[in-house]
Amino acid sequence: MKKILFLLFIAFTSCSKDHPVDEDGLLITSRAECYVSNFELLGVDFQTVRTKNAVIDTTACTIDVTVFYGTDLKNLYPQFTLVTDAKLDPKITGKVDFSDLANPKSYTVISGNRKVRKTYKVLITVQSK
Amino acid sequence: MRNIVIILLLLVTACKDKDYTVPVPKDALQNDCIKRTLGPNVAGLNIEFAYAMALPLNKGKIVSAQVEASIAGATGTYLENKSYYTNGSGVDVGIQIGDPSVNENNFTKVNFTKDTNAVTLRYYYIIPKEAQGKSVTFTFSAKSSDGEAVSYKMGPYVISKMDMVLDLPVKDGDFISIANMAVYNLADAATKTDKLDLVYLFRSIPNISFGHALVSPGGEPDYLPNVTLPTGANKITKVSKVWNLRDFHLARLQYGIYIDDLDFEQLKMSDAPDYAINLKAEAGTWIETADGKYRAYIYINKASDANKNAVISMKRYTLK
Prior knowledge:
The complex is a heterodimer.
Chain A: H1 2-15, E1 36-42, E2 55-57, E3 62-67, E4 77-82, E5 87-89, E6 105-110, E7 117-126
Parallel strand pairs in A: 3-7
Antiparallel strand pairs in A: 1-4, 2-3, 5-6, 6-7
Chain B: H1 2-14, E1 30-35, E2 46-54, E3 62-69, E4 78-79, E5 82-86, E6 92-96, E7 102-104, E8 107-111, E9 118-126, E10 135-144, E11 149-158, E12 163-171, E13 174-177, E14 182-184, H2 186-189, E15 198-203, E16 211-215, E17 238-243, H3 248-251, H4 261-266, E18 275-279, E19 283-288, E20 294-304, E21 309-318
Antiparallel strand pairs in B: 1-2, 2-9, 3-8, 3-10, 4-9, 5-6, 7-8, 10-11, 12-21, 13-14, 13-15, 15-16, 16-18, 17-19, 19-20, 20-21
């Protein structure tokens, strides 16, 4: 009986919250790194529209991406790869309209400890003839 | 300890197999049926069934089999007069059991000429155009020499509203009409300007990937380089590129994917562009006509850069 009580005690204590979570239910960690490590841009057919790898400047916080001639900029799916534990704001929930080239879209990367925020601009260049 | 022994004993006895007994067949004429085709039922294609019937040897033989369709099948509808078995090489070998089937109004009938007491016959119902958007049911029936009769109902099956056309050759500068589901060259297109929804073109332009393209005649001139348009051809058709959607009916490849009425009904085309360039073989495009009357899926079966041509197949759904 004593053993059972001991086991129950262990089970209860192991369920207690050791780590805080943020408003999205994601774990807040101690990591302060805050950058985009890779960027992909897909068309409505889920094929890449990049002509080459995107150039990510983690100092200037810009992502330069050149897309194929004729890319439908109104219907694109961006995909960000972030450093461990970081998250993106705003969240990407579907197609994004990148057609306003004069006003590039901005996305904020938030570090794992939720204390560092860096806003990246996605600068799109359409391949010209 | 004794309890544990009892539980174990129960578990062991519970695993004992029952003795197998050979099932006793019913002493009467019986039948069964399965539908063999998959995917939406499109006018012009067939629905295939396998209808099995049998009676004990001492009861006599089968004298006839027939199918009644609630909507008469189109020309080419038939009930097999052969029963097939698969030989050692995997080839289906047919054995004739009766005269070729006869179609009369909604009925398709085979009269048996061989002494047969068990057979499976295939039935191919060619879906008629007038059945589009309706449901069709089938009643399979068989009669034996001792006067018995059995029947088996199948369905109802909804017939798709889609129209389909296969393997239209297109060459650089041709026009595609969704309304007519046809391809026209420049000369023919001049008389049908109100029906021209897309231009097919192939361009090899340095530094960019243009390739095979479907462009609205009224769209951006940038995407219609050196294209001669008939006067009045100015429709703006919505076009959305798709990859990996190799519809089984259109592509006739090994992929079991079917575009159905529901896909066209739920398609969101409001923000689609009016062109699609850099298309490849096995790619496709969703289309919505300028008047919003039709939605279509154009699949590219073949595309040749050298010959600047392609072969396309199309499924079309009428919205209005």
